[in-house]
Write a structure and sequence with these properties.
mainly alpha; about 5% strand; disordered C terminus; acyltransferase
């Protein structure tokens, strides 16, 4: 478990939950219960919408609190005078690098995050919306979070449009309630469109990084794909887990523990 004490990240996390709770409140109270009170679709939409909210919260919490793949610090300080010596401490020089800020060796594709102040394995970027780095061990949950936000935005837009196209003929509400519902609906519509487009752009970027095996940091450094001939499905399975693809979008499904429990670094270097 990890939590980065970054003020910007904490504010973004609070904004995320306030936005989701506002969407849940508007959809449940002002759209479903006000426009389809006598329909069998009402309980269906309430259960379906809140199920997506629950999965979104689970994925987001795991992306926020799980260790993204922090490289452990050595128990003793490294003598930097040995950096240019003939010793390689059992690691290939073109693979393992040294971080002068953490004062430790780091494995391939690990990069230092100035906000987390640690080196992260297969670091893609530091995301303030999860107040954490997107790395080897939590990228799956970050991708799930993006998918559920997109699904929630599309579902909200769908319900708002349905409530406008097929208004409730038997619902006798006063003018003030109708105006309040319209105000909440318009606000949620704008919110869903803006966040939906923003999340889709990030999700496309994440899928490109996974399928082409090139993180955002590596793209900036113009290193190119890490493994050119690696199959796309195998690259996706490395992030989402070795289980059945139908289980990849469940936040309760853990990653391949055998692969991720390998020690990141020996303290004997």
């Amino acid at each position: 478990m990890a939590f980065v004490k970054d003020p910007c990240g904490i504010v973004c996390v609070l904004i995320t939950y306030m936005t989701v709770l506002h969407a849940d409140y508007v959809v449940t109270h002002w759209i479903i219960l006000q426009t389809m009170p006598n329909s069998l679709w009402a309980p269906f939409h309430v259960v379906a919408f809140n199920t997506i909210v629950f999965l979104l919260a689970m994925a987001h919490l795991k992306a926020v609190l799980l260790d993204p793949g922090t490289v452990p610090l050595p128990q003793i300080r490294i003598d930097f005078s040995d950096l240019h010596s003939e010793k390689n401490y059992g690691h290939e020089r073109e693979e393992w690098t040294m971080c002068t800020r953490c004062e430790t060796y780091r494995p391939p594709r690990a990069h230092h995050c100035r906000i987390c102040k640690r080196c992260i394995r297969r670091m893609d970027h530091h995301c303030p919306w999860i107040n954490n780095c997107v790395g080897e061990r939590n990228q799956k949950y970050f991708l799930q979070f993006l998918l559920y936000v997109c699904a929630l935005a599309l579902y909200s837009i769908f319900l708002i449009v349905i409530s406008w196209v097929y208004p409730c003929e038997d619902c006798h509400t006063d003018v003030s309630q109708a105006q309040t519902r319209m105000m909440h609906s318009v606000l949620l519509l704008l919110e869903s469109v803006l966040f939906g487009l923003f999340v889709i752009a990030i999700m496309v970027d994440q899928m490109h990084a996974i399928l082409y095996d090139e993180t955002a940091v590596e793209a900036v450094q113009q290193k190119g794909p890490y493994r050119i001939h690696r199959p796309k499905l195998a690259l996706l399975a490395e992030v989402c887990g070795r289980g059945h693809p139908m289980l990849w979008m469940l936040p309760c499904t853990s990653l391949n523990r055998k692969h991720h429990d390998v020690p990141l670094l020996s303290h004997d270097v």
